[in-house]
Amino acid sequence: MADYPSEQEAVNNYDSSQYITPDGYTSDIAVFTITAEEYIKNPKVSTSKELKIMLIKRAAVDAAGRPNIEGGKWALPGGFIDGRTKETALEAAARELEEETGISGIFLKHFGVYDEFGRDKRGWIIANAHYAIVPEQALSKRKAADDAVEVQLFSIDEVFSLNLAFDHRKIIKDAISFIERDLIETKVAKNFLPEEFTLSELQSVLLTVSNNPRITTKSVFFAKVPKLAFIEKVYDEDGNPKKTERNSYRPSQLYRFNDVEVIKSIYE
Amino acid sequence: MADYPSEQEAVNNYDSSQYITPDGYTSDIAVFTITAEEYIKNPKVSTSKELKIMLIKRAAVDAAGRPNIEGGKWALPGGFIDGRTKETALEAAARELEEETGISGIFLKHFGVYDEFGRDKRGWIIANAHYAIVPEQALSKRKAADDAVEVQLFSIDEVFSLNLAFDHRKIIKDAISFIERDLIETKVAKNFLPEEFTLSELQSVLLTVSNNPRITTKSVFFAKVPKLAFIEKVYDEDGNPKKTERNSYRPSQLYRFNDVEVIKSIYE
DNA sequence: CGAATAGTGTCTTTGAGACACTATTTG
DNA sequence: CAAATAGTGTCTCAAAGACACTATTCG
Predict the structure, then answer these.
(1) Do B83 and A17 touch, CB atoms closer than 8 A?
(2) Residue A35 to residues A140, A142, A194: CA-CA distances in angstroms?
(3) Cβ contacts (< 8 Å) between B25 and chain A: which residues?
(4) What is the distance between the alpha carbons of residues B257 and B24, in angstroms, rounded to a whole number?
(5) A264 Cβ nearer than 7 Å to chain D strand
(6) What's the predicted TM-score (pTM) here?
(7) Is residue A199 within 8 Å of A225, Cβ to Cβ?
(8) pLDDT tens-digit profile of A79-114?
(9) Helix, strand, coil proportions of chain A in percent (round to 5)?
(10) Which of A205, B56, B98, B221 is exposed most, by the fewest CB atoms within 10 A?
(11) Residue A103, class by beta-carbon neighbours within 10 Å (0-12 exposed, 13-18 middle, 19+ buried)?
């Protein structure tokens, strides 16, 4: 390697001041949950679930009492990443989410970068957008943080009638597209469910985003899902099928996702 | 809105110096093409196509004659984004790609952000990774740019035996996963093909990344594809089926992708 | 006619989807 | 037994997949 410069020499030759670098680097999170409506809409369909997104209302003034940018508007939780913490955007999102909800190990996925000049009046601010999936119970522990004065869940229908901060309307729209697509094209439904779930529970999650007959038709769904390679039946210590009675009097079989990868060709 | 601060007041209250901001913001591009091997491997299979990625060899010294970081290694084309240009990472990638290949309107998709601290010795450098699809002919026009001394196409098999710069091994690995998945789960195969293509041409593109029997089996593929909602038969001005003889003596029917969206459930 | 690519026909097995039926438990 | 959820059985039609057959053109 004698032909090549020493690493240190090369590093010293980089002068970051030759470029204008970003004025800020942020991490935003679209937090989704599925809420169960407990009332009975139809004698044959007892519970109906709905996909919701969590937003915060930005405070009018910041902690120091100065006017807050985009104050009073609804926004995605998130914030600036400080180079001193040496965090990645994903790590920062995970930490912020944990601070906000009090739970760790939440599913989090990066889905886009928003770096258009002018998207934030304060300068050239790069936003990393993520979506998170949180079980409903966990959100009851939520608490207001930092400059958030109010936290609320909105259905997909109502969220776009709100007064949204920055370019969050576009980010939220994208987040919803991603989660709706991922729920049926990938195994993320897993994150809305317990480790071990029944076929009805899986079906009710999928029904929040799809009306595909292979999901809505009971005989088809119940016949097909146990045969899928990425889903397996759960057995107890004695090797007997493991069942639960949490949803009904009659015990129902438990299933779980395994590690088999899925790729679904559009040409089949 | 009298309760909320004026926008200008709020903007003035933001002090970017309270955070350590990134030292650099870059755009990298994994350029893919499919090359046709002209030789005949098997009397029954006349042409075989292969997916390849384009890399550049980083110069040992920069334009000013100083040692170049990661000089001599193979890397993804790309470069720093300067805030003065007010470009997004995607726009910068498109421009760089056009400068590199001399062609415009290339398909380009963002697939990831690499912002781990320590991934670049020069500081906290954020990389936006994209993949691009370029028809083979276009790459013949390629020319070395900037600090690139050499440009070369590598097959997926051979690329990982190279000495790769920065964390480009991981980025390339991710790019390959994305393009292989997207080729069969989305309509991106479109970008490797002419506007109007034959079933055999589509099949040979898909065969570079899949051995799914519904793609490899001729009777199934030829029967199925013309019935797909997102693909349509092409007709000429007189309303007759439009055919080409570019691949054979016998004319073959032309098809094109239309704007129908595809979502393929893993539960069906 | 042979070579080369582009398809089509046919047959068997599997799966989709509709819908009515059975099973398990509690009160 | 009624209510509530969890499944299964059956029937029809459509699609998957294997593989052999036909079609078009050139030289």
Answers:
(1) no
(2) 12, 15, 14
(3) 21-22, 115, 126
(4) 39
(5) no
(6) 0.90
(7) yes
(8) 999 999 999 999 999 999 888 777 788 999 999 999
(9) 30, 25, 45
(10) B98
(11) middle
